Amino acid sequence: MIIELQQTTASKVAQALLHGRQVAGSPAMGMVMTMVVVCEEKDFPAALDNATQAALEHPARIIFVVRRRGRKAQLNAEVRLGDGSPGEVVIFWVSGPVADHSAGVVLPLLLPDAPVIVWWPGRAPDVPATDQIGQLGTRRITDSATAGELLKRVEQTRTGDSDLAWTRLTTWRALLAAALDQYPAQVTAATVTASRNSASGGLLAAWLRNRLGVPVELRTGGRRGLSDARLVTAAGDVALTRIDESTGTYRVPGQPQREVALRRREVKELLAEELRRLDPDEVYAEVVNTLLELQDSPAATGSGRPATEPVERTARTKAPTRKTAVRKAPAQKTTAKKAPAKKATGKKTAAKKTAAKKTTAKKAPAKKTPTKRATGSRKTTSAASSTRSRTR
């Protein structure tokens, strides 16, 4: 069932959803989440297919915000019930000023007491967590492979953000971890080969650096995405190399080479995997922090040159702290200006003490007077005694 609404409002769309469920004979809602998809008109067909396929595993109310070019304010909607999807699909076509305030259209249609996932199939905002629609989501999904500028993306990562470029590494990470389980040798270095500006290549290099604590070199090679990952040991390399779009070779020292499944997964599969876990990805957060620490090295930029030593990276990351210390210098100058006030107070106090001493010095003669009187009385007493003795 498809219901089209022209120049509509969010309340009319909610009424259309209720009416559609009643007509379909299923007034109860069995959806587990709300997925909000923000895209351009050219990306809408592919985004619709990927979102509806992911909803087969996770029944959801899918709300599309499709931005059209134009200055005129328009808000057209389309409600789809059934149509090969276990949930509900609401499509908003927005243009003009309405596109800048689309969060007010989406908010009334969010399912109560259910997680909200926001997905940008194409170019995402610079800071998804502060975007007007991104603030509504408990999970925000972007794709650095399509948006580009991996370093700028990870610098703005917040809790609840995830990247499909990281999801593409699930098979690679599982195979490399299994290799070390089979051959538990000491890894001294690692090498990752990927196409130029590959987001997945930079994330895999950061993951190996974070987990193994060894120097990682990111080389440029291959036509698309990751093509090779190697762990250097004393007995030989643990190597995982892609052959084609679906298979790869797997080599461990002391064992014969064998082929493994290394298929490039489609976006709908990556999206379905992300929806299986809605809590924050702690491993991804650690990898992002490592990538930020190495952002001035080729391992993060993908220039294909050897990575610098960890000590140099740490020293560079501490540079902002020194700048902060320089900025705080004016506060010390302010304290220096207050020093004369303390000296003035000291002078006044010293003056008071000096005056007090002078006052005490002036009162000194008063103490001498009793001494003279005492001396005179003693002389009178001695004279009287001598007179008495003579009379006798």
From TrEMBL:
Residues 51-156 form the Glucose-6-phosphate dehydrogenase assembly protein OpcA N-terminal domain. Residues 335-371 have a biased composition (Basic residues). Residues 160-287 form the Glucose-6-phosphate dehydrogenase assembly protein OpcA C-terminal domain. It holds the Pfam family OpcA_G6PD_C. Residues 296-392 are annotated as: Disordered. Residues 372-392 have a biased composition (Low complexity). PANTHER family: OXPP CYCLE PROTEIN OPCA-RELATED. This is Glucose-6-phosphate dehydrogenase assembly protein OpcA.
